[in-house]
Structure prediction request, 233 residues.
Amino acid sequence: MKKIFIIILALWLILSTSTVTFFVWQNPIERTTVGMALGLILFWIVIGGGLMYRFRDHIKELIQKIPLSWQAKFVLFATILLLIEEAITTTLTNLGPAFGLKLGLAYITASANYLDVIFFHSAVMIAPMFLGWMVILYFYDFSPFAVFLLFGISGAIAEGSFSGSWGAFAMWIFVYGLMIYLPAYCIPPTRPAKQPRWWHYPLAVFFPFLFVPLIAWIPQLINPNHPKIDFIR
Prediction:
């Protein structure tokens, strides 16, 4: 069933991106934006996700040897993956001139500056959610696949609310889910956690959002006038 679900999700990803590409092909800005999204799909989902799945047991063995609590390793590992994903998206945004466009006309991050993206935009909003999942996994034994799916849905809701890109939910499920799948896979299965009930699953989609304010206020304190998006078309 897991493989069938992934196949269906991948088919929707292919169909949705192909449809969007067809309709925006004549628009150089939108075409470049879609090209950046395709780069994210290739480098983060296909290559990155494939490597994570292929070497998951080897990575789990290495992670479990690190002399830290599983809670600390979970949050740190997920944050590292988040930083890698943001490095990919920021690099793709900076490739706009390679397509013949001025930097900032086409973009998939709120800034072309990696540190700006990390500290003032998406990463500072996403990282606290890993703390939420650490709390959830302390009490309940969600499977790694369930963590992948539920956090992916959280990400799709966040992205859809911000940009209105609800049709790209399959891409966002993969993008966000892969930030947390491997850290969840590396958690020791012997910890004293309960099996979740059915109603814990929908709650787990929204519970991590409660942790966003723990850090998200800091950039506003440093620079309250910082724009939500650095580019103006």
